[in-house]
Design brief:
Chain B: Keywords: Cell inner membrane, Cell membrane, FAD, Flavoprotein, Lipoprotein, Magnesium, Membrane, Metal-binding, Transferase. The structure holds two protein chains of two kinds. By secondary structure, chain A is an alpha+beta fold. Chain A contains two helices and eight strands. In chain B, the strands form four sheets. In chain B, strands 1-2-6-7-10-13-14-15-17 form a nine-stranded mixed beta sheet. Chain B has a three-stranded antiparallel beta sheet with strand order 3-5-4. Chain B has a three-stranded antiparallel beta sheet with strand order 8-9-16, with no helix packed on it. Classes of the chains: A alpha+beta, B alpha+beta. At the A-B interface, strand 8 of A face strand 1, strand 2, strand 7, strand 8 and strand 9 of B.
Chain lengths: 119, 348
């Protein structure tokens, strides 16, 4: 094996490892929260700064809470509390939705575990 | 001297120009957007380097789904509710072209599902309180349910001749909720293809249709656990494939400690029992939508026969005990997050 052969093998290994990281990296912790009300994005905030946001929609007020690198739907109109049941959103792609109030709370990051979630 | 310099730097300049040219090209990536349309959360993922195409495609999906939602809505004023009014008269009328193709296809699915998919039972869905955006109950009395079932409204009661339509049963009230989403996603995706979109996932309320693939890999789909605790399984899809799930956790209400979900068994008039969720993969989204509902109602014992009739070979059913029933074709496509109890069942 020549030095050139070794170089080619090394490059091939690096290529395979790089592809693995590029294609298969699991979900990373989210860094931002995006809040959509109706058809409009109304806020995009970092998750490392604690704060509370009140979003007014057609059914009332949805409260978004940001703390400890996560966000959650702390309160929202809707008799079943579906928005609140989503809990703390930490991984990129996690979301909470209030359909009656037309509010989407989603956290964003570099990598998502799944391209889409079926339910 | 100058000539020799040009000969040496020439190739270098070509490489430099090519590098600059390539760096100006954007690398394809997945563009995600989430918005509310069709009365639910919609997520559109498009794999492309063309940002203008993404903007056009997103606008197209928004307007398509909003139009369909308004047109096919079972209980808000529009062409479908007008069709219901006319069906209840028993007199012939000219069907609205925006709803006729759906009704024709729904008749076909009614037959192949052996009546488990019966969108003519709109009155039963209304009676249970599921024709509202925020169902709350209380559940109907057994006498009220029996009164509707005795009239036996079905898709077979609707006579269609060209564009002329009439119902031979005044109890027929159409509610295409178990099917319109699949049909709508299919139409919206066809429109995206016309715009030039080649690789995309359109997810409406958790049910999705994918085309193409993002680069050199398959699309990665997570299937949410029926108890809402994370992801039950991962599925890889590529090419045109739809993944639809019907679950007892999607729309329900509690009354006096009892939980009532929205997937009603047309044979009993009550929420279907024995199943928590059914996931189906099929190339046709409307078929996948109908099948997931029909197989949920068929239950853990009878779903294989119904799946065979509907031509569905990729099925995953989670029963009340949490046991996962899979067809051999589905087993090849699914990777589980944990080690749930599994049962492989071949179709007859």
């Amino acid at each position: 094996m020549t030095r050139a052969d070794g170089l080619v093998i090394l490059l091939a290994i690096l290529l395979v490892m790089g592809s693995y990281v590029w294609l298969w990296t699991p979900a990373t912790p989210a860094t931002q929260v995006r809040v959509v009300a109706g058809d409009r994005e109304i806020a995009r905030l970092p998750l490392d700064q604690p704060r509370q946001l009140e979003v007014t929609g057609p059914a009332g007020i949805t409260v978004v809470e940001i703390r400890d690198g996560a966000a959650r739907c702390a309160a929202s109109p809707g008799s079943q509390g579906i928005c609140q049941q989503a809990g703390w959103l930490r991984q990129a792609g996690d979301m909470a939705v209030s359909l009656p109030n037309r509010v989407i709370i989603e956290v964003l990051g570099d990598e998502w575990a799944f391209d889409s979630v079926n339910y | 001297m100058i000539h020799r310099f040009e000969r040496r730097t020439g190739p270098l300049m070509v490489v430099l120009c090519l590098t600059l040219l390539l760096s100006a090209c954007e690398r394809p990536e997945i563009h995600r957007d989430r918005f509310i349309a069709f009365g639910t959360l919609v997520e559109l993922n498009i794999y492309t380097s063309d940002r203008e195409l993404v903007a056009r495609a997103t606008e197209s999906v928004r307007s398509d789904l909003e139009y369909m939602h308004q047109t096919w809505h079972a209980w808000e004023p529009g062409p479908m509710s007008r069709t219901n009014e006319l069906l209840s008269t028993g007199l012939p009328f000219s069907a609205d072209p925006s709803v006729l193709p759906l009704i024709l296809e729904a008749q076909r699915f009614y037959k192949t599902s052996e009546g488990l998919f019966n969108p003519a039972l709109g009155a039963l869905f209304a009676l249970w309180g599921f024709q509202t955006d925020d169902p709350q109950g209380p559940p109907p009395t057994p006498e009220q349910i029996r009164a509707i079932l005795e009239q036996a409204p079905s898709m077979a009661d609707i006579e269609i001749d060209g564009i002329r339509m009439r119902s031979h049963n005044p109890a027929v009230q159409l509610d295409l909720g178990a099917y319109a989403k699949g049909y709508g996603i299919q139409q919206a995706m066809a429109h995206l293809r016309d715009l030039g979109v080649e690789h995309a996932i359109l997810n409406a309320g958790g049910d999705l249709l994918a085309i193409g693939r993002p680069g050199n890999r398959s699309w990665r789909i997570g299937v949410r656990a029926p108890d809402g605790q994370g992801v039950l399984a991962a599925i890889r899809i590529q090419g045109e494939e739809a993944v639809f799930t019907s679950g007892d956790y999607e729309r329900y209400y509690r009354h006096e400690g009892e939980r009532y979900h929205h997937i009603l068994d047309p044979r009993t008039g009550y929420p279907a029992r024995g199943t928590r969720a059914v996931t189906v993969i099929h190339h046709h989204a409307a078929t996948a939508d109908v099948a997931s509902t029909a197989l949920f109602i068929a239950g853990p014992e009878h779903w294989p026969a119904v799946a065979a009739r509907l031509g569905i070979d990729k099925v995953m059913l989670v029963d009340e005990a949490g046991v996962i029933h899979l067809t051999p074709a589905m087993e090849k496509r699914v990777t589980f997050e944990g080690t749930p109890t599994r049962r492989i069942t071949s179709l007859p």
